[in-house]
Amino acid sequence: MRILITNDDGISAPGLVVLDNIAKTLAGPQGEVWTVAPAFEQSGVGHCISYTHPTMLTKLGERRFAAEGSPADCVLAGLHVVMKDAPPDLVLSGVNRGNNSAENALYSGTLGAAIEAALQGVPAIGLSQFFGPKNYDIANPFDAAATHGAALISRIIEAGVQSNQDYGLFYNINFPPVPAAEVKGTRVAAQGFRPGTSFTAEPQLSPTGRPYLWIKGGDQHIATAPGTDAAVNLDGYISVTPMRADLTAHDALEALKVIQ
């Protein structure tokens, strides 16, 4: 198996080392793992692509590249430049430092890479590690992802879920905020919504009196509806959420026909 890995935390992020190990386990001794990751942190950029300016691509080692762009840019560089003669069988993105459950999925550069891969017709999975009091300060905060990631992805691949729709499937995996030994199992879960939680902007003044803003996140430990992603994560389970990039509100189509 040929696997392309990327992330949004940057080429030097510890989560990318965890993902590299997961990918090497999946690829096997006869497979290949290629890395194209952002040269600098790109958290929160979503599915941004840098089509208004060029993106520098630097080779750092064998099958290892850094791109001065977004995670989606990295996927495009991987598919159309780095691996153009023999494209990957799978794209993996992560392991993100922090969860991409619930509304976080909409901002996530980790999932932005998976979206782009799916739009290009390549199977893709985003992986994120939820943090909390039980795992934040342990020797390896990514313990749950490192221990359970490869086997879980193998099971997803073996399930053979196919999609013949124009917008292909990609998967959002979130590992719970506990050490690997305390993971209770896996739950296939819908994307949830944290009530009363959202990003905000806080104005401040610099020492020179100039105004600026800090963008602040909300409480990540508010549970979503029972059975949805963040709720099962906070209960100690890994969540697997199948997604696609079709943003149509299908439930509203019929009611809106009155305006035609």
From TrEMBL:
EC class of the enzyme, as a word: hydrolase
One GO location term (cellular component): cytoplasm
Cofactor requirement: a divalent metal cation
Binding site for a divalent metal cation: D8, D9, S43, N96
Cofactor binding note: Binds 1 divalent metal cation per subunit.
Localization: Cytoplasm
UniProt superkingdom: Bacteria
Pfam families for the chain: SurE
Residue span(s) of domain Survival protein SurE-like phosphatase/nucleotidase: 3-194
Catalytic reaction list: a ribonucleoside 5'-phosphate + H2O = a ribonucleoside + phosphate
EC code: 3.1.3.5
Coiled coil feature spans: none
UniProt xrefs under InterPro entries: SurE (IPR030048), SurE-like_Pase/nucleotidase (IPR002828), SurE-like_sf (IPR036523)
Keyword Nucleotide-binding: yes
Keywords: Cytoplasm, Hydrolase, Metal-binding, Nucleotide-binding
GO molecular function list: 3'-nucleotidase activity; 5'-nucleotidase activity; exopolyphosphatase activity; metal ion binding; nucleotide binding
Task of the protein: Nucleotidase that shows phosphatase activity on nucleoside 5'-monophosphates.
Family membership: Belongs to the SurE nucleotidase family.
Name this protein carries in UniProt: 5'-nucleotidase SurE
Gene that specifies this protein: surE
